[in-house]
Amino acid sequence: MTSPQQINNLQAAFQDALNMSGSPGVVSTSPTTSFMNTLPPRTSVAKQAKALKPFSTGDIKILLLENVNQTAIDIFDKQGYQVEFHKSSLGPEELIEKIRDVHAIGIRSKTKLTPEILKHAKNLVCIGCFCIGTNQVDLDYAAKMGVSVFNSPFSNSRSVAELVIGEIISLARQLGDRSIEMHTGTWNKVSHHCWEVRGKTLGIIGYGHIGSQLSVLAEAFGMHVLYYDVVTIMALGTAKQVATLDELLNNSDFVSLHVPATDETKNMISAPQLAAMRNGAYLINASRGTVVDIPSLIQAMKAGKIAGAALDVFPHEPAKNGSGAFGNQLSPWISDLVSLPNIILTPHIGGSTEEAQSAIGVEVATSLSKYINDGTSVGSVNFPEVSLRSLDLDQENTVRVLYIHQNVPGVLKTVNNILSDHNIEKQFSDSSGDIAYLMADISNVNYSDIKDIYDKLNATEYKISIRLLY
Ligand SMILES: NC(=O)c1ccc[n+]([C@@H]2O[C@H](COP(=O)([O-])OP(=O)(O)OC[C@H]3O[C@@H](n4cnc5c(N)ncnc54)[C@H](O)[C@@H]3O)[C@@H](O)[C@H]2O)c1
């Protein structure tokens, strides 16, 4: 039996070895007990999970830019990580200087992580995009460096669904027009063609995260809900899935789009679909700008076929805020669009709420912490998604091997040969394009073996990066 003093000595010796190698990002620390308490266990087993903890998590350095939400800072602080926070983005030179030795960087949309920047990151393990999009990061380059990228695609679903509910009522009551009139001194008290939403039918196209939230909210207002989706999805409440898009369009008073931008959804609502809608129906698009053919919508509204529309997204959107940014220089039909009555135009704000920002902070910081602490890459956008169940508290002398490698034949044979002196308790490997990721828990490992295992894995031909957690 190893005494606590012996363990301390072994840990100190191993720490020395690491310091000599000068690469704290390669063999890294694992979770603190406090972290395990803040996260749901990966299995439903009631047993307490073992916190993998060879060193202080205080070695982990996180650089947060662009005023990432406080919820993220709180999660990283709880881990004991060293957090450097900046309200804005950094210029290229300062970014290169700062990224050099951090283990994780958190950004929003302004910071561009190009190969020219990323190549300077010597210890980087993961990147957090505290937003929906990830095209500000060169994902392939990051993957080839063994750097996993996370984002938060669904934290703002509720915000979008609530905006759409607001728009349904606003369109039915011509609220936008009445408000503009009052701002210009006109009193125009009308009830003609103004409706309650109770008893009307809402047709939802795309019954995913947002569409299904919207379904629940709409029913609470007494609406009937139909939905159309390429996948068969269980209805919430008394909503009904319909078999074809036309069936939905023929039978809905309000149609709201919640599909992704794909080749199939490009101009999904164009002249024939608008013609298939009920006379005097309303159209709402808070999904992606390519989904509605806006010139056809303008025609249908001018003809009185469509009584109102709300658009939050456009095929071309301005890069930044400012007066005059939304004009014909983006698309030639914009002046026509803005002159229509009963049309609500918003600058892609569907998901822009304080609550969504705070939820994004929690989701991305949690993903980064789980990846740093136990290697779980679930939710990564550029990496194979791999996870192993936690170790039990009573599992001593177990090491978790995290081995990122090029996706070529024969690598697993080489790695398993290296690990074969120990009992491989569990392992999971997956690949995505050129990159593969192996997670393995091996038992019967003495601390003195760890450096040996690391050196052997490090010498393998197709290795990209290695971390050992214990
Ligand atoms: N306006 C905003 O600020 C804002 C914010 C968040 C998301 N969005 C956008 O909203 C859309 C929906 O987001 P989500 O989180 O609900 O996505 P999701 O992936 O959860 O749901 C999309 C649904 O659309 C279905 N679908 C895909 N192709 C389809 C097709 N051709 N026909 C019918 N159904 C189809 C899918 O099966 C899925 O159920 C996305 O385009 C997203 O980019 C906009």
Automatic annotation (TrEMBL):
It catalyses: (2R)-3-phosphoglycerate + NAD(+) = 3-phosphooxypyruvate + NADH + H(+); (R)-2-hydroxyglutarate + NAD(+) = 2-oxoglutarate + NADH + H(+). It is an enzyme of class 1 (oxidoreductase). PROSITE patterns: ACT (PS51671), D_2_HYDROXYACID_DH_1 (PS00065), D_2_HYDROXYACID_DH_2 (PS00670), D_2_HYDROXYACID_DH_3 (PS00671). Pathway: Amino-acid biosynthesis; L-serine biosynthesis; L-serine from 3-phospho-D-glycerate: step 1/3. Keywords: Amino-acid biosynthesis, NAD, Oxidoreductase, Phosphoprotein, Serine biosynthesis. SUPFAM superfamilies: ACT-like, Formate/glycerate dehydrogenase catalytic domain-like, NAD(P)-binding Rossmann-fold domains. Its EC number is 1.1.1.399, 1.1.1.95. CDD domains: ACT_3PGDH, PGDH_3. Signal peptide: none annotated. One of its GO terms (biological process) is L-serine biosynthetic process. It holds the Pfam family 2-Hacid_dh. It comes from the Eukaryota. Residues 400-470 form the ACT domain. The keyword Transcription does not apply. One of its GO terms (molecular function) is phosphoglycerate dehydrogenase activity. Belongs to the D-isomer specific 2-hydroxyacid dehydrogenase family. Catalyzes the reversible oxidation of 3-phospho-D-glycerate to 3-phosphonooxypyruvate, the first step of the phosphorylated L-serine biosynthesis pathway. Also catalyzes the reversible oxidation of 2-hydroxyglutarate to 2-oxoglutarate. NCBIfam families: PRK11790.1 (NF008759). This is 2-oxoglutarate reductase. It comes from Eremothecium gossypii (strain ATCC 10895 / CBS 109.51 / FGSC 9923 / NRRL Y-1056).
